[in-house]
Amino acid sequence: MVAELTALRDQIDEVDKALLELLAKRLELVAEVGEVKSRYGLPVYVPEREAAMLASRRKEAEGLGVPPDLIEDVLRRVMRESYTSENDKGFKTLCPQLRPIVIIGGNGQMGSLFNRLLTLSGYQVKVLDQDDWPQADTLLADAGMVIVSVPIHVTEQVINQIPPLPEDCILVDLASVKNRPLQAMLAVHGGPVLGLHPMFGPDVGSVAKQVVVYCDGRQPESYQWLLEQLQVWGARLHRISAVEHDQNMAFIQALRHFATFAYGLHLAEENVQLEQLLALSSPIYRLELAMVGRLFAQDPQLYADIIMSSEENIHLIKRYYQRFGEAIQLLEHADKQAFIQSFQKVEHWFGDYAQRFLVESRSLLRQANDSRQ
């Protein structure tokens, strides 16, 4: 038995080595693709090409008796690495005549990410940090674009401190809230103004497929090239008004972060044995627990700023608290019928998305289980 298994495992090892050689070859080809894209200003991420390629590979896999989901999982992971590799080749400069870009807070995490991407795109980037304000007039005197990338709670204060900018300078902010910073920028600068919200953290390997929300401020024709530059990086753009942005972020960020905070606080106060929870957890609970733990591995000031950024957020969280209490009453009265009716009401609200999310979540759960030790 041992000899049989050893012989088969040796063959598997040889196949794995062949796979490694093929992956290395694929990455070499990706590097060449990156050079071509960089030269012609083509976007890193082309959804039509990716979808067509995956559909073809799934069909071919089925013909070979290979599970289509397997090849898709493998290729998606390989493509993620490919998008990161393409960054190394740089990007085409879409506005070569632009004067220097100054990032206020450019040594912070998000500021550093934009500094790197803009530098890879051929722009001259300068940084204005807290200790540099005595030289702000000099640093900003010939700026072609100024990006404000500072903590939310000081964003408006910093915007109000910006000295007069060149008339054609583009003023941009990256805050997670949009309406008040946008109004502040419009008040201090008479030229082009744009609000950006990158819907990702600074630790992403690539901007490919990542969503960037933008809110028009003034003279959109002046910063159209910047939106196109974001698309060259692979980002997916979504335009929305600043007011609508903040209304949606109340659900996407403030409510979700608060619920996670409260759950984490409850676990800590109950003094649950985390190791036992992990040992006994299903893949879905492990994934949920990982998302809770992820929050507490980051800057508490950031999440306090997001949650407490507006009175509307507080009112929304209070309504959530009220509905939580109403749901508890169903349990206290052991009212299963009312519970089922409420469940079905939510199911109806989700509509077709419920089944779609069921399918999408399966791959996430498989990955959570794969990473289990």
TrEMBL record:
It catalyses: chorismate = prephenate; prephenate + NAD(+) = 3-(4-hydroxyphenyl)pyruvate + CO2 + NADH. GO terms for cellular component: cytoplasm. It is found in: Cytoplasm. GO terms for molecular function: chorismate mutase activity; NAD+ binding; prephenate dehydrogenase (NAD+) activity; prephenate dehydrogenase (NADP+) activity. Keywords: Amino-acid biosynthesis, Aromatic amino acid biosynthesis, Cytoplasm, Isomerase, Multifunctional enzyme, NAD, Oxidoreductase, Tyrosine biosynthesis. This is T-protein. The keyword Amino-acid biosynthesis applies. Pathway: Metabolic intermediate biosynthesis; prephenate biosynthesis; prephenate from chorismate: step 1/1; Amino-acid biosynthesis; L-tyrosine biosynthesis; (4-hydroxyphenyl)pyruvate from prephenate (NAD(+) route): step 1/1. It comes from Chania multitudinisentens RB-25. The keyword DNA-binding does not apply. GO terms for biological process: chorismate metabolic process; tyrosine biosynthetic process. In the C-terminal section; belongs to the prephenate/arogenate dehydrogenase family. The lineage of its organism: Bacteria, Pseudomonadati, Pseudomonadota, Gammaproteobacteria, Enterobacterales. Residues 99-361 form the Prephenate/arogenate dehydrogenase domain. Residues 1-90 form the Chorismate mutase domain. Gene3D superfamilies: 6-phosphogluconate dehydrogenase C-terminal like domain (1.10.3660.10), Chorismate mutase (1.20.59.10), NAD(P)-binding Rossmann-like Domain (3.40.50.720).
